[in-house]
Design a protein that fits this description.
Helix content is about 40%, strand content about 10%. The protein has helices spanning about 1-10, 15-20, 30-60, 70-95, 105-125, 145-150, 195-210, 215-220, 260-275, 290-295, 350, 375-380, 400-410, 415-420, 460-475, 480-485; strands at about 170-175, 230-235, 280-285, 305-310, 320-325, 335, 345, 355-360, 360-365, 375, 385, 420-430, 450-455, 505-510.
């Protein structure tokens, strides 16, 4: 009798019964259905288990990856499993916990946990980031200034000092937001900027770059400000060359690209949030004037402007505008080019500043001498005085020597040691030339780029900006300047692969549209 009971119990188990019954001829339909249902149960459980571990493995270190297609598929599998869970396993769970167990409460608890976990994966972009190929510092070692200088070109991972204060020295973050402007190709782009959206883009970019959970903490990591220190912001007003017109420029009629006030306002906002006073924020392009319309669009009226020394006659009545000259040849801050035996002389405003933020624009360049692009490394050409005729036909504008000169300028100790951040202004962009108005880009669906770039490593940041330009216009955009700058230990020069990924650059694209 005991044996009969055991056989009955054994045969009542669906998994084994269908197997044993197969030895006795034709299997009744109801047992075929039970056997098939058993396979469904096992398959769903296996798929859900694999999907769960896949999401943990891929999204755990960076939850923003939940938007990737493979992660969405895994999330869909888990959601389906959660919905079918009571149907597939309700009886077994109820039997396991006893007849008095309230299954509805258990399922509700599991559902709540699943929802919390899903929301966490969806919105938590700011968890401790994944490690870059070099970790924090060289091979995980933070470098002192003397060690960095001693390293020189011995490591392909060498970059400027500020980058080693980040979780990943070669991290470059891009933030795209199609709501940042409503410009459709006509009119003054300044009139189509969405300041609130650009503020949000800067906040997110700074947090992702620094691995922090608040914009203020991110800015403190970038600018370790103490009372009395100052921050110089290098702008690009290359298309405002005419000193004879003073500080007047009608950018409603002259739409050639200049830095846009909305992006600068967001950077100023970040600096003010960590206690940098207005009079210690210095906006400058020493080679150019900064026109009145731009200053009118800057929200903080207390920031200071330092403009070309030839504009002294025009600053009267503008108490927050000063001129800046350049250090002398024999200054300790002057350096010598490796290409020519002439001195590279930084503007005095950068010598006097404690920190530097470089805000280039996303622009191509008409000359192959700069690799047909202009980004942060080229932007500092307007930060120094150099005797050679840069605008003429002298050797300085031949490709190889000029690229080396730009690398030498950025290797000057003033810029190498004081630069803390590059913010690439790509809300608007022109992929072909540096002296024209912005254009609509095919690679952004016939819209402006509406993208900001964030990095401390200037070479890595420029590399990503070049790849965006190259994606739009093709191979005419090169990494010529970046390669020479990398040779001087200023950062990592790299082009993305066919999947728009890098090996050494810790590339973090964020698309707020998705």
């Amino acid at each position: 009798m005991k044996e009969g009971k055991n056989n009955h119990f054994h045969n009542s188990n669906d998994k084994f019964y269908s197997h044993n019954f197969s030895n006795f001829g034709k299997i009744p339909l109801k047992y075929r259905i039970k056997h098939f249902w058993c396979k469904i149960e096992n398959s769903f459980f296996f798929i859900a288990l694999v999907s769960f571990f896949w999401m943990i493995y891929k999204s755990g270190p960076k939850p923003s990856r939940i938007v990737y297609p493979c992660q969405k598929a895994a999330a869909a599998n888990l959601s389906t499993f959660a919905i079918l869970f009571p149907l597939l396993y309700g009886k077994k769970i109820k039997k396991f916990f006893g007849q008095n167990f309230q299954l509805s409460r258990l399922y509700l608890f599991i559902l709540i946990i699943a929802v919390i976990f899903g929301v966490f994966l969806e919105i938590n972009y700011y968890n401790p980031p994944i490690k870059s190929p070099v970790g924090s510092g060289i091979y995980g070692k933070n470098l002192s200034q003397s060690e960095q200088v001693e390293l020189g070109t011995q490591s392909k991972y060498s970059t400027i000092l500020a980058a080693y204060d980040l979780p990943s020295p070669h991290r470059v973050v891009t933030v795209h937001d199609s709501n940042s402007s409503t410009w459709e190709g006509e009119g003054n782009p300044n009139d189509y900027m969405n300041q609130a959206e650009i503020d949000k883009m800067v906040d997110i970019g700074i947090m992702e770059l620094t691995g922090t959970t608040s914009p203020q903490d991110g800015w403190r990591k970038i600018i370790p400000y103490t009372n009395g220190q100052s921050v110089a912001i290098k702008l690009n007003f290359n298309n405002n060359q005419d000193y004879s017109k003073g500080l007047y420029l009608n950018d409603d009629s002259n739409k050639n690209m200049l830095n846009y006030a909305a992006v600068v306002n967001s950077v100023i906002r970040g600096l003010k949030s960590i206690g940098v006073p207005s009079d210690k924020i210095w906006l400058t392009d020493p080679s150019r004037p900064v026109h009145d319309q731009f200053r009118e669009r800057i929200s903080d009226k207390g920031v200071q402007y330092y403009i070309n020394q030839n504009c002294g006659a025009y600053i009267e009545g503008r108490p927050n505008v000063s001129v800046t000259g350049y250090v002398s040849d024999n200054s300790a801050y002057a350096s010598t080019s490796t290409t020519y035996a002439e001195k590279i002389r930084p503007a005095q405003v950068f010598v006097d500043a404690t920190y530097i933020i470089n805000i280039p624009q996303l622009k191509g360049h008409g000359m192959p001498s700069v690799g047909r692009v202009t980004a942060s490394l080229k932007n500092n050409f307007g930060s120094v005085y150099y005797v050679a005729n840069a605008l003429g036909s002298s050797p300085v504008h031949k490709a190889e020597p000029f690229a080396k000169l730009l690398a030498d300028i950025n290797n000057n100790p003033v810029f190498r040691n004081k630069t803390r951040l590059v913010v690439g202004d790509g809300i608007m962009g022109n992929p072909d030339i540096n002296y024209g108005p912005p254009t609509l880009w095919n690679s952004f669906g016939n819209k402006p780029p509406e993208t900001l770039f964030f990095g401390a490593d200037p070479v890595a940041t420029d590399s990503v900006m070049v790849d965006y330009i190259r994606r739009e216009v093709g191979s005419q955009a090169t990494g010529l300047v970046q390669s020479y700058a990398a040779d001087l230990g200023l950062g990592v020069s790299e082009s993305w692969n066919d999947q728009e990924n890098y090996t050494y650059i810790d590339y973090r694209p964020i698309d707020l549209d998705s």
